[in-house]
Amino acid sequence: MDTPVWDFVQSYRQAGPRRFHMPGHKGTGPLGCEMWDITEVQGADSLYEASGIIAESERNAAALFGSGATFYSTGGSSQCVGAMLYLCLTNRPAGAAPAVLAARNVHKSFVHAAALLDFEPLWLWPEGESRSLCACPVTAEGLEKTLNALPVPPAAVYVTSPDYLGNMADIPALAAVCHRHGTVLAVDNAHGAYLRFLAPSLHPLDQGADLVCDSAHKTLPVLTGGAYLHIGRAAPAAFREGARAALALFGSTSPSYLTLASLDLCNRYLAEEGPERIRAAAGRLSALRGDLAGWGWASAGTEPLKLTLDAAACGWTGFQAAEYLRAEGVEPEYEDRDYVVLMASGSTGEEAFERAADALQSAVSRRPVSRPALPPARGERALSVREALFAPREAVVAEESLGRICGAPTVSCPPAIPVAVSGERIGPEALALFRHYGVETVDVVREERLSVS
After folding, report:
1. Which of 44, 259, 334, 358 has the smallest number of Cβ neighbours within 10 A?
2. 74-106 pLDDT, tens digit each
3. pTM of this prediction?
4. Are strands 227-231 and 299-300 parallel, antiparallel or unpaired?
C-alpha cells in the first residue's frame, strides 16, 4: 500500500530546502526526529481541509477498516469523542432530543464535550453487580427499556467498548436496538483499533456502529496522539460531510506531522504483516490467560489483547501485584485496588510474553480477600455540566464535600464511571467511593457562586 504522507516528508527532507517556515527547530535538534517534522508547506496538504496526500492516506485507512469514511486525528480519541458528539447533536433526526444517552463509564473528554456543546447527558447505569468503576455493563434489554421510557429518542447512544478492564459490549445487539428506535450508536473504541484485523473482525464498525473512534497509538504502531474517526457505511451522509469541521472544532490548527506520518505508515503495516502479528499476539495472550488458573491467578475481561488480573481474588491488592510485576521487569498499563491490566500488541515480542509468564507463574498465591460491591453514586443534578465546569471552583477535602456540587468530574481513571459528574450534588454514596478509591480532594463549585445565582 502506498504511503503518500511519508513519501512527501522523505522527498522534502532529501530536497534540502532552507526552512523559512515553522517549526522553529528548522529540521535539526537533539531528538533526531526534527528532520521529519514539518508544517503545511506547499504540497503537504492540511488536515482539516485535506484534499491531497492526507486525504489520499485517509482513503487508504478507510479501505483497510471498511468504513464509509475515515479521518485522522492527532489529538487522540479525545478529539474524536468531541467530534462524534458534535456530529450527532447537529445532525439529529427531526423530533430527536438534543441529548446523548451514554453508559456512565465515559472518558473525561465526554464530560468536557458536554460542557462545550452544552448538552445534558442521560446515563445508562451498570446492570448487575460491578466491582470496578471502569466497567459499566449494558445489555440490549436494558437499553431497550431505557429508550422505551424516553418521550423521544436521543440524538445518540454512546458506549465505551472495550472498557479499561477489557470488557466488550454486545455491539450488534445494541446497534439493532438503537436503529429500531431511530437513533445512532457511537462507540468509544479507543482501546480496540486492532479488532478489525482479527479473524473474524470484532471492530464496532463491522458490528453495526454508526460512529467509532479508535486510538491508533494504543494498540497499533502509531505515535502518541494518533487516532481515527470512522463513519459507518450506513451512517447519515451528513456525518461524512461534517467530520473535518467537527474535528477542527476540538483540535489544534497545528497537528503533528510526525503523528500524521506514523498513521500513514501504519496503513502499510495493516495491509502487510500487521494482521498476522496481531492475531499471533492475541493467540499468545490467550494461551497465557489459559495458564493463569493453574498458577493461582484469576482474570477478567474478554478483550483479545488485554490481560486483566483480578488481584483481589488472589489475595493481593492491585497495587501490590503491580509492584511485584515491576520488580520482575514487567510494566503494567494500569492498576487500582482490585485489578492490574497488561496490554499487548502486534509489536509485543516473545521475550516480553515469556517474562510476564515467568513472573506470574512464580508469584505466591494468597487467600482471596473480601471486597465490598459499592454501587455507583447517583448524584442529584443541581447545575448543568456546562454551568458547573465554567463556574468558579475550589478543591476541598473529599470527606468534607458532602452536599457540595461537583465542579470537575471525579474519576479513578479514564475511562471510568465518575464518582460525581460536574453539576451533581455529592451524597453519602459518593463519599464511600472516595474513601474506597483513595480520592483525597474533590473539585467543587464555590458556594459564593451559588449564592449570587
Report:
1. 358
2. 999 999 999 999 999 999 998 999 999 999 999
3. 0.94
4. unpaired
